[in-house]
Design brief:
The complex is a heterodimer of chains A (626) and B (180). The longest helix of chain A is centred in the C-terminal third of the chain and has 31 residues. In chain A, helix 12 packs antiparallel against helix 13 and helix 13 packs antiparallel against helix 14. Chain A is of the alpha+beta class. In chain A, the strands form seven sheets. In chain A, strands 1, 2, 3, 4, 11 and 12 form a six-stranded mixed β-sheet that branches. In chain A, strands 18-13-14-15-19 form a five-stranded mixed β-sheet, with helices on both faces. Chain B has eight helices and no strands. In chain B, helix 2 runs antiparallel to helix 3, helix 6 packs parallel to helix 8 and helix 7 packs antiparallel against helix 8. The chains are: A alpha+beta (626), B mainly alpha (180). The interface between A and B is large, with 60 and 61 residues. Bound molecules: adenosine-5'-triphosphate and magnesium ion (MG). The site of magnesium ion (MG) has 6 residues of chain A, from loops.
């Protein structure tokens, strides 16, 4: 029997000394990828040295999507085939998206679940598929810069994203072949980027106004723990809306009431350039002759612009106020500005006035989210074993159930710290009833019709009983990514009712598999080789974790026989990893995983005791209430 | 080999704190963060899927325990539950008429506020008043609970529930007034 090699603390005997982990900011307008190298987090540039990848995908040629700046150049030629601001359509139903689509001149259709699809020259494309193209491009950039496969990524989402939007983002990453370590809220990522640099203590407000979304979050940083106290915002408010008010103004002041799709795109690009110029100039002359040869030139002053966007900026302050109240605070220590639209002077002014603090700006507001995500990815992938940084995030919107009369009963209120599990008991209302329909919604309103429908499922196989006799316990669990899973069980008889969750939004696993297969078909690379590499990685990860655990706790928590059993199984798996049989590696990895479950449970128990060890109960001050 | 962490102990023991209404909020917070530091799923991002599931369950339980104990009403209700008092016992409890009349008066004040000239000040004032009443009931609860006087403990609990509901309605109105 081969002797087991035990790693010295802080030293790994394994091939993957430092893992390749990246943070990805998948933005409405621009996307970025960053990574920690040599202890420093930095954004990665493409071959031309550009850091920001425009979040634009052109589908003019079937099978050959074009991403980024080249796609942007195709936009006015092929408006319907060039998808911009796709993030605004993620996880949305066709109804929700119509207004967006009208502005962007997309042709929409919908899939079987009522989700949006864009009609392009390459056929129908879903927002998830378009986002996957952007992610694929960033992944390729990272793999060439870091010279190897990516072990995992943290992908950021607006804190205010609902369940369907998060699920869609995760689906896009899966499609792009990315192992998602965590979905991280953008403002939390920004706070991490600042918090870790300055080792600050205190309350931080993160004001993030990007292209398409507005987010406000309030966090407390204490002893390495980032606790999100409250979060709010608006998933449909951002720099795009500033552009739109300028477009409307240009149209009004040139007396045009109808425009062509191509003209609209051009007008919008012009509006955006004008807006960005107004951040440093007090007035800008707009030349409309390329769009309407007969139109007179117009000038937009910063004052006029500020008057136009005033109502939009005010809306963000209302959300800030609500967020402060939810956090039970009336002031903060620091304000962090994130997003390109915080370059607008009016925005900076009103925000610093509102919080009575000069905002922190030393990290580039365009990069701060990706940098924070890279740091968190580095921690999660295990490159910083000594790190005691921890993020405690919240769910942004309440989860509830439909009850009689189309009303919502809240199960998990918004701003509850995740992960969270809540159980709720249901009963039957008719004699002999054997099925029960459950409808899960997300939102703050009282009527089901005003909330977003997340999932419907039916409990079947309830034994027939008199009304009210069956007791069905439904458990809702939201994991650390903010994603929901539901399980149900009939209590009175011990019979487990079968639950089928049919997501109203997001992709089913079989959809993903089908899409993966079709994308593999024209993807390069050998599927089998990839499969073996993946199984090997999973096997190494398990061995690595288990060896470290055995070295630390094996003697204390296992008897000699138990320990021998685990060591033998570990050695067996290590031997298999030398070979090339993916099937066998998979089987042995699974069996070792099962064998180590009890050890894992004991270790967790020990962690709890250690966390509280050394704090004597009688030292507690006797204090009443709060 | 069978063993799994004990998820059945009471919330106070989970934090290593004595079962009592009096609690040091800072200490509770510090212990909460220390526990999450060990149990949070982020600590298990590279672990087996079994360990990840276990971590989600534990971390969720610690969150639930923290939320329950953090606020006086949650703590009081939980102490009653530990003492075997059911929701049913609570809802059968008869509240004295004096308290109900006082509640009605507070509610009328709340409803009249939007029509007032200075609604902002009025709502501040009302919030103070409700908070004062709440603190009085918290003291009453603690006394009854410590003296094993279940009847009075239930009564204080039910009153706290009434006041808490009124408080959230008043806070909602405050929010509306602020948002304009
Ligand atoms: N100098 C500037 N002045 C005003 N606005 C600017 C300036 N530079 C960039 N912007 C605006 O910032 C927006 C893009 O910001 P950013 O790149 O942060 O958004 P995003 O991350 O893609 O979107 P989101 O975070 O909403 O998903 C665009 O609307 C752009 O016009
Ligand atoms: Mg952004």
């Amino acid at each position: 029997m081969a002797l087991l090699q035990i790693a010295e603390p802080g030293q790994s005997p394994l091939p993957h000394q430092v893992k390749r982990a990246v943070g990805i900011d998948l933005g409405t307008t621009n996307s970025l990828v960053a990574s920690v190298r040599g202890g420093r987090a930095a954004v990665l540039a493409d071959e031309e040295g550009a850091v920001m990848l425009p979040s634009v995908v052109n589908f003019s040629e079937p099978e050959r999507p074009v991403v980024g700046a080249p796609a942007l150049r195709l936009a006015s030629q092929h408006p319907a085939d060039t998808l911009v601001s796709v993030k605004r359509f993620m996880g949305r139903g066709r109804e929700d998206a119509l207004e967006e689509a009208r502005r962007s001149h997309y042709c929409l259709s919908e899939d079987a679940q009522g989700l949006v699809r864009f009609t392009t020259a390459s056929g129908d494309v879903s927002p998830v598929e378009a986002s996957a193209e952007i992610l694929r491009s960033l992944r390729a950039r990272a793999e060439s810069t870091l010279a190897g496969d990516i072990d995992g990524a943290v992908i950021t989402v607006p804190a205010y994203f609902d369940e369907a939007q998060r699920q869609a983002t995760k689906d896009a990453a899966t499609l792009a072949g990315i192992n998602v370590l965590r979905l991280l809220n953008e403002p939390t990522a920004a706070a991490v980027a600042y918090g870790l640099d300055s080792a600050d203590q205190g309350v931080i407000a993160v004001y993030d106004l990007g292209g398409g979304t507005f987010d406000i979050s309030i966090l407390r940083l204490r002893a390495g723990v980032f606790e999100v106290l409250a979060t709010g915002g608006d998933t449909a408010l951002g720099g795009d809306d500033f552009d739109n008010v300028i477009v409307d103004w240009l149209q009004r002041s040139s007396g045009k009431d109808s425009i062509e799709p191509g003209q609209h795109r051009a007008l919008k690009a012009l509006a955006r350039r004008t807006k960005e110029a107004l951040s440093s100039e007090s007035s800008v002359a707009v030349d409309l002759s390329s769009i309407w040869p007969d139109a007179p030139g117009v000038t937009l002053s910063r004052d006029q612009f500020e008057a136009l966007i005033q109502p939009l900026v005010k809306r963000t302050l209302r959300a800030c106020r609500r967020c402060l109240r939810d956090a039970e605070l009336d002031q903060v220590d620091n304000v962090v500005m994130v997003g390109g639209s915080t370059r607008v002077p009016l925005v900076r002014e009103v925000v610093s006035e509102f919080f009575a603090r000069e905002p922190l700006l030393n990290i580039d507001p365009d990069q701060v989210v990706a940098i924070g995500a890279a740091i968190q990815a580095d921690i999660l992938v295990g490159n910083r074993p000594q790190s005691d940084v921890l993020l405690l995030d919240v769910i942004p919107l309440s989860l509830g159930l439909e009850t009689m009369g189309g009303l919502v009963e809240k199960i998990i209120p918004r701003n509850t710290t995740i992960p969270v599990a809540r159980a709720q008991e249901f009963t039957t209302y008719k004699d002999g009833q054997t099925a029960l329909a459950v409808h899960i919604v997300q939102g703050e309103r009282e009527l089901v019709t005003d909330c977003r429908s997340l999932a419907r499922f039916e409990l079947r196989g309830i034994p027939p009983m008199t009304a009210g006799a069956a007791k069905i316990l439904v458990t809702f669990q939201v994991d650390a990514d903010g994603l929901l899973s539901v399980t149900a069980k009939e209590q009175a008889t011990g019979v487990e009712a079968s639950v089928s969750v049919k997501p109203s939004f997001g992709l089913s696993d079989s959809d993903i598999t089908a899409m993966l297969q079709s994308s593999f078909q024209h993807a390069q690379g050998d599927k089998q080789a990839r499969h073996l590499a993946e199984q090997r990685l999973a096997g190494w990860q398990l061995i690595e974790g288990l060896r470290a655990a055995l070295a630390k706790d094996g003697a204390a928590l296992l008897d000699a026989e138990e320990r021998q059993l685990l060591e033998d199984a570990t050695a067996a798996l290590a031997a298999l990893l030398e070979g090339t049989d993916a099937q066998e590696i998979k089987a042995q990895t699974e069996s070792l995983g099962r064998l180590s479950e009890a050890f894992a449970a004991r270790r967790m128990d020990k962690s709890i005791h250690e966390a509280l060890a050394g704090v004597a109960v009688d030292t507690l001050a006797e204090k009443v209430g709060e | 080999m069978t063993s799994s962490p004990d998820l059945t102990q009471d919330y106070f023991s989970l934090f290593g704190l004595p079962v009592s209404f009096a609690i040091d909020r800072d200490e509770l917070g510090a212990r909460y963060r220390r526990l999450q530091g060990e149990l949070h799923p982020d600590r298990y991002a590279n672990a087996s899927s079994y360990e990840q599931r276990l971590a989600v369950q534990h971390s969720a339980l610690v969150n639930q325990a923290y939320q329950t104990l953090r606020k006086p009403l949650g703590r009081a209700l939980y102490l009653m539950e530990l003492g075997g008092v059911s929701q049913n016992d609570m809802s059968r409890h008869q509240i004295d008429g004096g308290f109900l009349i006082m509640q009605m008066e507070l509610r009328e004040k709340l409803e009249a506020i939007p029509e007032l000239m200075e609604p902002d000040e009025a709502i501040e004032h009302l919030l103070d008043e409700i908070n004062q009443d709440l603190r009085a009931e918290q003291r009453a609860f603690e006394q009854a609970y410590n003296g094993n006087d279940t009847e009075h403990a239930i009564s204080a609990c039910v009153k706290m529930q009434y006041l808490d509901k009124l408080l959230s309605e008043a806070e909602r109105l405050e929010a509306k007034l602020i948002d304009g």
